[in-house]
Design a protein that fits this description.
Length: about 120
C-alpha cells in the first residue's frame, strides 16, 4: 500500500517532535510513503521565506533515510492535467499534491489540512 505526504505532514514527520494524528501515524508505519515532487519546491519556498529552518533537500534526505519516503514518478504532464480539475483551491501546491494522490488509485493522502480533507475523501490525519 502507498500513501502520500503533503508538505506540512512531511515537515512534521521530519521534525520528530511535531505531533502527527493517530490515524496518520498508523498509516505511516504500514505504507510505502510517497511525496509529489512539488513538495520539494514548496519546502524550498518555505525555507526561502523563513518558515522552515532547513532547505528542502535536507528535510527530504532525512525522510528518505529515516522512513523511506521517495518521490512519486508519475509523469508531471499527467499530474498537471489532473490538477486542473482541482478547482476548489487556488493553491497550486495543494492542487498538485491532491491530483497526484487521486490519479494514483485514490491513494491515501496524509494531511492535517482541513480544506484538503473537505475535498479529497482519502485524506488521513
Amino acid at each position: 500500500m502507498i500513501a502520500y505526504l503533503d508538505t506540512h505532514a512531511a515537515v512534521r514527520l521530519s521534525d520528530g517532535r511535531a505531533r502527527i494524528g493517530r490515524d496518520a501515524a498508523q498509516l505511516i508505519r504500514r505504507a510505502d510513503l510517497l511525496c509529489s515532487p512539488i513538495v520539494s519546491l514548496e519546502m524550498e519556498y518555505l525555507f526561502e521565506i523563513g518558515r522552515l529552518t532547513l532547505p528542502a533537500k535536507d528535510i527530504l534526505n532525512k525522510l528518505e533515510h529515516e522512513v523511506g519516503v521517495r518521490f512519486c514518478e508519475l509523469p508531471f504532464a499527467k499530474v498537471t492535467i489532473a490538477a486542473a480539475h482541482e478547482k476548489w483551491t487556488r493553491d497550486v501546491f495543494d492542487r498538485i499534491v491532491v491530483a497526484q494522490a487521486r490519479i494514483n488509485g485514490l491513494a491515501p493522502l496524509i494531511s492535517a489540512d482541513e480544506e484538503i480533507a473537505a475535498h479529497y475523501p482519502r485524506t488521513v490525519w
